[in-house]
Design a protein that fits this description.
With 177 residues, the chain is mainly α. It has four helices and three strands. It has two domains: 40 residues; 92 residues, no CATH class. It is elongated.
């Protein structure tokens, strides 16, 4: 039994020595093989750090390229009409219903104009300019209330007849002299 334990210890020591650097005649001792292992580990760590730095730089370059290829940010927009009333009781509900009805009545003129345009042309207006030049101006439609420095924007891609938004007016550059 004792012989088996000694054999097992010798075998495990041989395996450990082989794993740490081999046991050939070129080894000059345990100190030099540990130094080689340390040097290999340092080289691997340096290579991993270089790879991480390179991948980080590539990721940042891709993010910068994606940000540069994005279209300019849209102006904030809200649907045209009166805003909503805050939460409350019975009177707030009545005021909210009144506001909803007034918004629907104000939308009626331009939505009927768009419906008439679709009936005659077979399509919705393709953009805001066509909406203004072929529907609103010729028919004299009042689009409703807007604040100073705001303008209306028609978006034909949203809703059945398009959606009318109120947006901040684009500031026109001063004429150069």
């Amino acid at each position: 039994m004792a012989v088996c334990r000694h054999v097992a210890v010798v075998v495990s020591m041989l395996l450990l020595a082989t794993a740490l650097g081999g046991c050939g005649p070129s080894d000059s001792g345990a100190g030099s093989s540990m130094a080689e292992v340390d040097a290999r580990l340092d080289a691997q760590n340096a290579a991993q750090q270089q790879d991480q730095a390179k991948s980080e730089a590539e990721r940042k370059a891709q993010e910068a390229q994606a940000a540069a290829s994005q279209p300019p940010a849209e102006r904030p927009r809200t649907e045209a009409g009166r805003g909503s009333i805050g939460e409350g009781g019975y009177f707030t509900a009545i005021a909210g219903a009144r506001r909803h009805v007034l918004n629907k009545v104000e939308d009626l003129a331009w939505t009927q104009g768009v419906q008439h345009f679709q009936a005659t042309e077979g399509r919705l207006p393709k953009d805001h300019d066509e909406f203004m030049n072929k529907i609103v101006i010729p028919l004299g439609i009042d689009l409703g209330f807007k604040e100073e420095g705001q303008e209306f924007l028609y978006d034909p891609t949203e809703g059945q007849w398009g959606t009318l938004y109120v947006v901040e007016a684009e500031s026109q550059p001063a004429p150069q002299q």
